[in-house]
Amino acid sequence: MDELYNWAGNYKYSTDRLHVPESVEQVQQLVTQFSSLKVLGTRHSFNGIADSTANLISTQSLNQVITLDKADRRVTVEAGIKYGDLCRYLHQHGYAMHNMASLPHISVAGACATATHGSGDQNGSLATTVRAMEIVTASGEVVDFSREQYDRYDGVIVGLGGLGVVTKLTLDVVPEFLMRQDVYENLPLEQLQEHFDGIFSSAYSVSLFTDWKKASFNQVWLKHQQIEESAYEAEPEFYGATLATMDQHPVYGCATENCTEQMGRYGPSHERLPHFRMDFTPSNGAELQSEYIVSREHAFDALRAIDRMNKHIAPLLLISEVRTIAEDNLWMSPYYKQQSVAIHFTWKDDWHAVKKVLPMIEEQLSPFNARPHWGKLFTMSPPRLQSLYEKLPDFQELLQQYDPQGKFRNAFLNTYIFGQE
């Protein structure tokens, strides 16, 4: 088999032994057969969180909708289904997800396991919609976890791949709704000092983009939900930013046809909440990504700290995005018990240079207890990372209970969760 890489091509997996089961029973057989393995979804992680030196299981063939319960507003899906495919199905039946990430190409199980998020003051991460999970644990047993019946369920959802092979998930859904996108250009950073809440509460979902070449945001993406029949009218100015007169790509110079529709054109929520269309190659392609999450109360100070480093950051950067995420109670979520702001960096594909600037960013953000996104690149020391999660000891116990021999552990989990070099 050819060498195996992640989506961006920056990470080469440590084995080419890839297994693609087509049923839960085949998953059970593989788990029973092997003493060491990890699970891959759509390979959108930029680090080794899903790597294995022994065996990899792909959920790409476990990608079907199983049932839609309209009465309880829940849908049960196989773990490998992509959000774009799921949301098309839901739309056909009059339903939607409450939020989506910038890419619709990611798998449901992988996104939830790493606490991947979209944006919006009132919108929790994608993992907050999970009501039940079916997992094949290290013994090969199929175990059903549900919020109503398992008292440590908040420890299971953002599982970092450590509990076993997630094979099914039951998710909360909402009635379908329409959205529009309006883009504004050139928002001064200083506007956030006095108007942070006003800016981020101005739409259902808000994203600020900057290349950090100056103390301003190149673009503001406002995603408005249609509430009434009367049409919303975009104002010509937004806190000093001006309304764009043509479609925009977050990265200047990139073609806009792979972006979701803008210019105030209403459409189904799943065609507006992501930044990029399901039918196109996502984002920029060859790139690296990092993201740090801070408490909302520290967000402006954290952004000013980043701005002071712009001469180090800007030459390596494609684009940076700032979004808000509602707090949750999930043990290993970066948004655990805090209204959060995520500062995202999409870097040029130059790890040699990027790995020198990440420690500088982490030092600047250290006073704000910034937590890195689990699936992206960071250089934070394991002790520092572990200190940011008060429920880590409980999570360690949970992994040891369901995987006592460490079948689903790898270098990433051993290092950052168990503190083993």
Radius of gyration: 21 Å
Q: Which band does the percent of strand residues land in?
A: 15-25%
Identify the CATH class of the largest domain. Answer: Alpha Beta
Which class of secondary structure composition applies to the elements?
A: alpha+beta
Write down the overall mean pLDDT.
95
Distance between the termini: 30 Å
Count of alpha and pi helical runs: 11
Shape: globular
| CATH architecture tag of the largest domain | 2-Layer Sandwich
Give the gist of this structure.
Helix content is 22%, strand content 24%.
Attribute tags:
single chain; alpha+beta; Uridine Diphospho-n-acetylenolpyruvylglucosamine Reductase, domain 3; Alpha-Beta Plaits; 2 domains; 10-stranded antiparallel β-sheet; 11 helices; 22% helix; 24% strand; globular
Q: Can you describe what's shown?
A:
The chain folds into two domains: 65-175, Uridine Diphospho-n-acetylenolpyruvylglucosamine Reductase, domain 3 (2-Layer Sandwich), CATH 3.30.465; 178-374, 2-Layer Sandwich (Alpha-Beta Plaits). It has eleven helices and 20 strands. Strand 14 and strand 15 (241-243) form a beta hairpin. Strands 11, 12, 13, 14, 15, 16, 17, 18, 19 and 20 form a ten-stranded antiparallel sheet that branches. With 421 residues, the chain is of the alpha+beta class. The longest helix has 15 residues, at 351-365. The radius of gyration is 21 Å and the shape is globular.
